[in-house]
Amino acid sequence: MLVHIIMFKFKEENKKANIIQAKQMLENLMGAVPSLRSMDVGVNFIEADRAMDLSIIAVFESKEGLDAYDVHPEHQKVVTFIKSVVEYSKASDYLRD
């Protein structure tokens, strides 16, 4: 299994609404992207300088599944929106047994 973690820091303009919209869009990918086995989407509630605003943990069977997710049209719609409302993101991918 491959675990794909992304954390997002959103721009201040319309921050709360954009986080809610991004969360919904990400959750809607379950069932729409065949290679996506599971996804947790969480909104941060702790105020700290190092805190990120929204995080996802997505699970795939393999790297090929992640690659298929990356180019899937529904995922690309989410990417386009998120890129327009975030300052930056951080990622980590790892294999687990």
List the helices and strands and how they pair.
Blueprint: E1 2-10, H1 15-27, E2 36-43, E3 54-60, H2 63-71, H3 73-85, E4 86-95
Antiparallel strand pairs: 1-3, 1-4, 2-3
Helix pairs in contact: 1-3
In round numbers, the mean pLDDT is: 97
Number of alpha- plus pi-helical segments: 3
Main sheet summary:
4 strands, antiparallel
Which stretches of 5+ consecutive residues score pLDDT under 50?
none
Termini Cα gap = 6 Å
Question: Over all CA atoms, what is the radius of gyration?
Answer: 13 Å
**Strand ordering within the main sheet:** 2-3-1-4
Percent range for β-strand residues: 35-45%
Encode the helix/strand succession as letters.
Answer: EHEEHHE
Describe the structure.
This protein is α+β, with helices and mostly antiparallel strands and 97 residues long. It has three helices and four strands. Helix 1 runs antiparallel to helix 3. It starts with a strand and ends with a strand.
